[in-house]
Amino acid sequence: MNDRIRPGQPWFDTEGKRIQAHGAQLFFENNTYYWIGENKEHTTGTDEIWTWGIRLYSSCDLYNWKDEGLIVAPDTENKNSIFHPSRHMDRPHLLFNERTKKYVLWLKYCDDAHYAVLTADKLKGPYTVVNARYFPYGAKCGDYDLAKDESTGNGYIYFEVNHSDVWAAKLNADYTETEGEPYVIYTGLKPPMTREAVTHLYRNGKHYLITSGMTGYRPNPSEVAVSDNWLTGYVVQGDPHVGDKSRTSFHSQISSVFKIPGKDFYIALADRWRPDLNDWSYTGDMQPDPDMKKRIAERLQMLGLDPVKDREKAMKVAIAVTEECDTSVADYVWLPLEFRGETLKINWKDEWKVEEYEKFLP
User: Fold this and answer.
1) Is the peptide bond before 336 cis (omega within 30 degrees of 0)?
2) Among the residues of the chain, which ranges form H helices?
3) Strand partners of residue 211
4) CA angle 260–69–106, rounded 5-degree value
5) What's the pLDDT tens digit per position in 16-29?
6) What is the pLDDT of residues 179-193, one digit of tens each?
7) What gap in Å lies between CA 360 and CA 264, rounded to an integer?
8) Is the pLDDT of residue 177 over 90?
9) Residue 181's closest CA among 232, 230, 137, 134?
10) Could you write out the three-class secondary structure of 226-278?
11) pTM, whole model, 2 decimals?
12) Measuring CA to CA, which of 38, 102, 236, 317 is 20 to 30 A from 217?
C-alpha cells in the first residue's frame, strides 16, 4: 500500500504492475479519482508500437490505483484504423457534458497532426467515434488541453498549431468541435522554442497556461502565461520550477493539472519520459545535445531531406529520432502547485502527501 506520492519513482498499481497511463488526466466522479492515459506497456522503441490503447485506473486516495482496463482498445488487425498500435495516438483529454450527458474524449495523433473525438454514455465506455480526423480550422494540430467553465458549461480548447503557434477556441455545445474564431496566444515560434504540452488551469479569476518547449522526449524548461480571460490576454510569467538548475522542469513534461474537488489545491501531472537521461539533457539556452543533433543530421542526409526546404518532413524525422526510446519504463512526476499571489510555482519534493496541505486549505 502506498501512503504518499514519490515523484520520479516507479509507480505500481494494486496488482503490482507498473502504471501505464501517460500524457495523463485525472477525473473525479462519485467520490472516486480516475486516472486516464496512454498505455505504453509495449512501447519499447524497437518496433512500430506507439500506444496500446487508453488505460483507466481508479483510486479513493490518489496513492493506490486499481487497473480498470482499456477504455479505448488497440485494433491490431486493421492497420488503417486510428486505433492501430502503430498510430501515434496520445494525450487523451475528457470532459463530461452536462447538456448531452455524454463523456467526450479527445485524442491527439502526432503522426498526422489531427484529433479524433469520441463519446460515451458512461465513463468506462464503450466509446463511439464521432470524428476520426478532425483538423480545427483546417490546421495541423498538436498537444492540447480541454477545459470547462463550471458556471456556464462552456467548453474550451488550447492547442499547438503547425509547430509554430498556440491557439485557443470555444467548443460547440456538444464539445465535439470548435466554434467561432480562434484566438492566438503564441505565434511565429520555431522548435525548440515552439510551445507544446499545453495545459490550462483556472484559479481565483485567473487562467494559467503551462507549456513546454518542443524537444521530443528530452525535457526542457516549462513556461507559465496568465490571463483574466479564457481566450485572450495571456502574459508570460516564466518557468515555474523553483531551483531547477538543469532547466528541464525537474526532468519531466507536464500533461495536465488536477484540482482537488472543493479545495484550493492543484497537482501538476507530469511524465518523466526518459528516466535514463541522468544528464538532464538540456542547457539553459535550450540547445540540443551534440549527439542528438548528429543523429538527426545523419537521418536527414540518408533520406535526402533539406532541413530548410523540407522543413515539415525534416521536423517529423527529428521528432521520430528523439522518440526512438523505451517509454514503457517512463515514470511520473506529480507535484503540488504553490501560488505566491498570482504567480504559480512548483517546488521539488522527494515525497509528499495531500494530507500535509490540508491545514492550509479552506
Assistant:
1) no
2) 290-303, 311-322
3) 223
4) 60
5) 999 999 999 999 99
6) 999 999 999 999 889
7) 9
8) yes
9) 137
10) EECCCCCCCEEEECCECCCCCCCCCCCEEEEEEECCCCCCEEEEEEECCCCCC
11) 0.91
12) 236
